[in-house]
Amino acid sequence: MCEILQRSGTVVANRKLADNLFLLDIQSREIACAMGPGQFIHVQIPGMDARILRRPFSVYQVDEAAGTMSVLYQTVGAGTQHLAALEAPFSVDIIGPVGNCWEVPEGNDRLLLVAGGVGAAPLFVYAQQLVAAGKQVDVVLGAQNKDALVAREAYEELLGVEPYCATDDGSYGYHGFCTGVVSELAKSKQYGLVACCGPEPMMKIVSDIALDSNIPARVSLEKRMACGIGACLSCVVNTVDGYKRSCVDGPIFDAAKVVW
Ligand SMILES: Cc1cc2nc3c(=O)[nH]c(=O)nc-3n(C[C@H](O)[C@H](O)[C@H](O)COP(=O)(O)OP(=O)(O)OC[C@H]3O[C@@H](n4cnc5c(N)ncnc54)[C@H](O)[C@@H]3O)c2cc1C
Ligand code: FES
User: Fold this and answer.
1) In the CATH hierarchy, which top-level class contains the domain 5-98?
2) Which of 20, 59, 71, 76 best tests ligand 1's pocket when mutated (most atoms within 8 Å of CB)?
3) pTM reported for the whole predicted model
4) 228 alpha carbon to ligand 2 midpoint, in Å?
5) 34 C-alpha vs ligand 2 centroid, how far in Å?
6) In what order do the strands lie in the sheet with 68-74?
7) Residue pair 237/243 in contact by the 8 Å Cβ criterion
8) Is residue 232 lining ligand 2, measured as CB closer than 6 Å?
9) Residues 137-177 pLDDT 10s
10) In the chain, which residues fall in CATH 3.40.50.80?
11) pLDDT tens by residue, 204-240
C-alpha cells in the first residue's frame, strides 16, 4: 500500500445529478495521481463543527492531467447534506489514498462487476483498468430508478455496450433487484471473478450466487469509519481469519472469507 497523504484540496465543482445524488470534483494533484482503483479518500467536510469526523468517499474518476478526482455521493445525513449545500470553489482537507485496491487477475477470464447505487463509483476506475488490460468485462448496475443509474452512460462509453441495468421501480432495464440479473448471468456465462460494491445485503446475495457457482468474489465493504487510518478499530469486519480493519485491511475483501 502506498503512503497515506494529508493535503488540502480545492473543490472545483459540486453538482446535483439527481435527487440526493451529487458529483464533486476535487483538485488535489498528489492524492488524485496516487489513487488506485477501489481506494478512498477521507474528507473533512468544511464548516461543520471540528469534532465532526471525516467522511470516507470512493473516487469515481481521476483526471491526472488536471490533477482532479471526482466523487459521486449520496446525501444520507448531516455531513453529506452540509456538503451538498456548499458552493464551489472551496477548500477541503483530505486524507488519501486509503485502503486496498481491486486487483487485475491473470488470465483471460471474463469478469463481472456488480454495483448497487453509488457503488457504481468505486468500480468505474477498476473497469477502466480492466478494459485497458484487454479483459472482457460485464457490468450490472442496480438503482432505485432510472435517474439514479447515473454512471450508466460512462460505463456504456467505456465498454462500448450498455451495462446490464436493473431498477427497483422498473423505470429502466430489468424490473427488480440487480441480484436477479446476476443470478441469470452466473448461470449463462463463465466468469473468472465477480467484484461487487453496494448495500451490504445485496453484496451478501451476490457473494452467495458467485460462490455457489464456484466463482471467486471480492466485495467492497463500506463500514462506518472514524480515524480512517487503522488506529481506532471502529470499522472492523469479521472474517474467517479474525477481525480486520475495513479502512486499511480493506475495504475490498475476499467474499469467501467474510463472516456476514
Ligand atoms: C470506504 C467507503 C467508501 C465510500 N464511498 C462512498 C461514495 O463513493 N459515495 C457515497 O455516497 N458514499 C460513500 N460512502 C458512504 C459515506 O461515507 C457515508 O454515506 C457518509 O459518511 C455519511 O455521512 P453523513 O454525515 O451524511 O451521514 P451520517 O449522519 O453519518 O449517517 C446517516 C446515515 O448514513 C448511514 N451511513 C453512514 N456511514 C455509512 C457508511 N459508511 N456506509 C453506509 N451507510 C452509512 C448511517 O447508518 C445513517 O443511516 C463510503 C463509505 C466508505 C466506508
Ligand atoms: S476507521 Fe479507525 S481503524 Fe478503521
Assistant:
1) mainly beta
2) 76
3) 0.94
4) 5
5) 21
6) 55-58, 40-44, 90-98, 5-18, 21-27, 68-74, 61-63
7) yes
8) yes
9) 999 999 999 999 989 999 999 999 999 999 999 999 999 99
10) 110-220
11) 999 999 999 999 999 999 999 999 999 999 999 999 9
